[in-house]
Design goal:
4-stranded antiparallel sheet, single chain, 8-stranded mixed sheet
């Protein structure tokens, strides 16, 4: 009887030890698998970020020159307008490139213009003057003849008969600004430019519209400590993201008597 009890106890002990060993192996395998999946996910997200930063992957693979990267790009139907850096920089570009999707031939480099002295960092498309033709809007960082400070400026071009034509390259708009958005804010022909403008006591939102041969100020907000983003959410409304007491806040601005005021609705 005692031998049987001893044998049963040994069997149970062996099974328990075996179970513990299997559990430890299973835990190790699961842990390694989770780590591998995490690494794979991080790589996928990182690659997706590069795709967004460097434009359409077809352009990147087939139409860029050796070492060239896309700083910013915008696609309009079968045409892609891009700021690229042949030097491989990621902060500023040196070339404006226009690609066409030629179906069987894929994306083809149709036009390029040397922008190395302009230090461009952003590109947009919008019909600013209401003529139903989209202008090429570029954010650049440079000094000009009447202002030797290197700062953000806005240059506007038309692409006519496979040539880049200057529409507006004024030295000043919205003072010292950090970023901008484009949208239909005012009920009139053409889109407006919405700037995040630096002031002595913080930052404010300024809206400009095209008139005749240049831009005019339509309205601007009061000063806020730090504005991080603006976008047009509908006619007469701007969504602004700003920092308040170390927290990010959002609010809606509307135009009222030449000012942008907070919409309390």
């Amino acid at each position: 009887m005692s031998l049987k009890i001893y044998a049963d106890n040994e069997r149970r002990t062996h099974i328990k030890r075996h179970t513990i060993i299997i559990s430890r192996k299973t835990y190790f395998i699961i842990t390694i698998s989770v780590l591998l999946l995490t690494v794979i996910l991080i790589v996928i997200l990182w690659a997706a970020g590069l795709d967004r930063a460097e434009g359409n992957w077809k352009i990147y693979k087939t139409s860029l020159k050796k070492g060239e990267i896309i700083i910013d790009a915008i696609v309009d139907s079968n045409t892609t307008y891009a700021i690229t850096s042949k030097a491989g920089r990621r902060d500023y570009g040196d070339t404006l490139v226009i690609f066409k999707d030629k179906a069987k031939d894929g994306w083809t480099r149709m036009y390029e213009n040397d922008f190395k002295d302009l230090k461009p960092w952003r590109i947009d498309l919008a019909d600013l003057d209401g003529d139903q033709e989209k202008e090429i809007i570029t954010a650049v960082c440079k000094s000009v003849h009447f202002d030797k400070r290197k700062k953000n400026r806005l240059f506007v071009f038309n692409y006519i008969d496979e040539k880049l034509v200057k529409k507006w390259t004024g030295s000043q708009i919205a003072g010292d600004w950090t970023d901008y958005a484009v949208g239909n804010f005012v009920p009139m022909d053409g889109s407006e430019l919405i700037f995040i403008r630096k002031t002595d006591s913080g930052e404010r939102v300024s809206v400009y519209y095209w008139y005749d041969f240049g831009f005019l100020l339509f309205a601007e907000s009061r000063d806020y400590a730090e504005i991080t983003d603006v976008s047009v959410t509908g006619e007469g409304r701007i969504l602004m993201t700003y920092k308040k007491t170390n927290k990010m806040q959002k609010l809606i601005l509307k135009a009222q008597d030449g000012r942008l005021v907070e919409d309390e609705k």
